[in-house]
Amino acid sequence: MAVRKPPITTREYWAPGHAACAGCGPAIVMRLATKAFSEAMEEKYGDPNAFAIAHATGCMEVVSGVFPYTSWKAPWIHVAFENAAAVASGVEAAWKKLGRKGKILAIGGDGGTADIGLQALSGMLERRHNVVYLMYDNEAYMNTGIQRSSSTPYGAWTTTSPPGKYSIGEDKPKKWVALIAAAHQIPYVATASIGDPYDFYRKMKKAASVDGPAFVQVLAPCVPGWRIPPEKTVEVAKLAIETGLWPLFEIENGDFHNIKFQRFPKDGKFKKPIEDYLRLQGRFKHLFKRPEAIQELKNQIKELWRILGKEVELP
Amino acid sequence: MPMKKVMKGNEAAAWAAKLAKPKVVAAFPITPSTLVPEKISEFVADGEMDAEFIKVESEHSAISACVGASAAGVRTFTATASQGLALMHEVLFIAAGMRLPIVMAIGNRALSAPINIWNDWQDTISERDTGWMQFYAENNQEALDLILIAFKVAEDERVLLPAMVGFDAFILTHTVEPVEIPDQEVVDEFLGEYVPKHAYLDPARPITQGALGFPAHYMEARYTVWEAMENARKVIKEVFDEFEKKFGRRYHMIEEYKTDDAEIILLTMGSLAGTLKEFVDKKREEGIKIGAAKMTVYRPFPIEEIRALAKKAKVLAILEKDISFGIGGAVFADTSRALINEKEKPIMLDFILGLGGRDVTFENLEEVVEISKKALEGEKVEEINWIGLRKEIL
């Protein structure tokens, strides 16, 4: 009887025993991303280990590399907060000269990517380095507590966007780095969510397989930052997709006219209301006393879909 | 046979990089060092240099890419100046802390504000505590030689620290001088190939670099940088000896000129040393017992050499193109530390001059000598003196 190959490799590069919180979304990202990478490397170069990781400062870097321990079973380097893409550029150039086959994986959170690291990211993409940049998006600076980033969604509570008499919480729309990355007309850009691990896995594999730079932005809920119980991480991430709040898409070569969508309802009508997503999280609790803020959030999501070329209905 | 070519300081730096055969160069253009990446681009375009040249979007990314490349185990070079170096500041500490022997050429330039593209040493002086070794060139030949020397010292297993080589903006970067270009084979023999045992990103031997150091380990990690810098004193001298054997040119931590019977010794760095030698000759003709000294290596600070030099002088006048606000010149402060517990020490005076490209004239130097002479005669003078300052426009 033929044995089916498991859909996700059993190889591990993210060792157990790291210091992340129970139910940590980004930790799931690290494990899946490296597994997908190794499978892509095996298919492309015949060597599952043919990659190295350049990590921006952030919670995943901190919990995984506390000297003298390490969670990484792959060559791994951390330099600073804003330069993972630039460091990856250097590693890639060195590998080229050493004749080493493989690809570099750069990893940053939303702070290290959408904010302080955006310039280095742009430079790396524009120069066409053979690097996959993975942005794990937990929608705030979680390493230093819970401060807003430009990737924090409208209405969310953080310690620097607290709701109050004159504030509804974060008052700016979320910045979508995937679209900025796609504007560089690089081979591959995708969004993903740990709420759909197979889709994320497939996209990471594809990102690792293309020649040249690729960018993946993955939603990765943060248990303390989002005020959710540890067992709800994946459920929340799933609801983000099902309510239309987190579009899953792929853009190749910056071709905005041919965006591939995943799990998009045929009629454009999302069945679950975003309130289902918001209600699970302490960071949006205050919005339920401010229905106009929830409406504003819906308007912003519709606008995002419109930019992506889709008219949607949100219940 | 080594060939002689007339070239600018920036070209000399680019030639040094070519001869050292780095596998990765990452740089961003900045005045006055722009010609370094330009020249390297030409070398690469013509196939004369077999390096990956990453044309980064900022100096911060230049040094970050160098850290990535060096951590992956290859010889790495960059060049910058002034604001560009300041933009690298954060990563300079990291490069040293990670023990990566990157070499960087710097066209020493003033820092804003006001914005100013001309020469002083405030850029490199401001980075003296990063853990990078610092060399200062007097002329274009030294710019070339010291970059080769810097690679050799930086990559020595007793050291493994990055190094910067400064040469004065415009005075050297844009001035043509005859420079001897050593033979490639001799440079190859001198430098050898860089094969690190501590820094590589090899899937066959996965290691973690740049981990988090808790209080239980951080201090020891910093101590190893201190220790490496202490080791560098010995290694630099060894490399100076070897360089002389291979290339015939002699370098010293501190090079002295007519100091043996001098009462007043003027100590400086960089291109000003050339001016001082000429000035010393002039004053000697007038019968003034004066000598000059040039500090080639500023980090590690040549403590023993300063002590030996100080024994010869009654007045040690330090001439420097930098200022540490609230205390005085940085070289003066460091020199004072070297002499603090010496039983006999000269009167020490500091002269801040030439900031932002202001010419240092013989008139200025006369003023330095006048003040030094007064001090020698027991008159009370200021410890910190701004020379050539246009008080009338204040």
UniProtKB/TrEMBL annotation, chain A:
The keyword Oxidoreductase applies. This is Pyruvate ferredoxin oxidoreductase subunit beta. GO terms for biological process: organic acid metabolic process; sulfur compound biosynthetic process. It comes from Thermococcus litoralis (strain ATCC 51850 / DSM 5473 / JCM 8560 / NS-C). Residues 57-218 form the Thiamine pyrophosphate enzyme TPP-binding domain. One of its GO terms (molecular function) is thiamine pyrophosphate binding. Gene3D superfamilies: 3.40.50.970. The keyword Oxidoreductase applies. Heterotetramer of one alpha, one beta, one delta and one gamma chain. Keywords: Oxidoreductase, Pyruvate. NCBIfam families: PRK11865.1. InterPro entries: PorB-like (IPR051479), THDP-binding (IPR029061), TPP_enzyme_TPP-bd (IPR011766).
From TrEMBL, chain B:
Heterotetramer of one alpha, one beta, one delta and one gamma chain. Keywords: Oxidoreductase. It comes from the Archaea. This is Pyruvate synthase subunit PorA. Its EC number is 1.2.7.1. GO terms for molecular function: pyruvate synthase activity. The keyword Oxidoreductase applies. The gene is porA. It comes from Thermococcus litoralis (strain ATCC 51850 / DSM 5473 / JCM 8560 / NS-C). GO terms for biological process: response to oxidative stress. It catalyses: 2 oxidized [2Fe-2S]-[ferredoxin] + pyruvate + CoA = 2 reduced [2Fe-2S]-[ferredoxin] + acetyl-CoA + CO2 + H(+). InterPro entries: PFOR_II, Pyruvate:ferred/Flavod_OxRd, Pyruvate_synthase_PorA, Pyrv_Fd/Flavodoxin_OxRdtase_N, THDP-binding, Transketo_C/PFOR_II. Residues 16-240 form the Pyruvate flavodoxin/ferredoxin oxidoreductase pyrimidine binding domain.
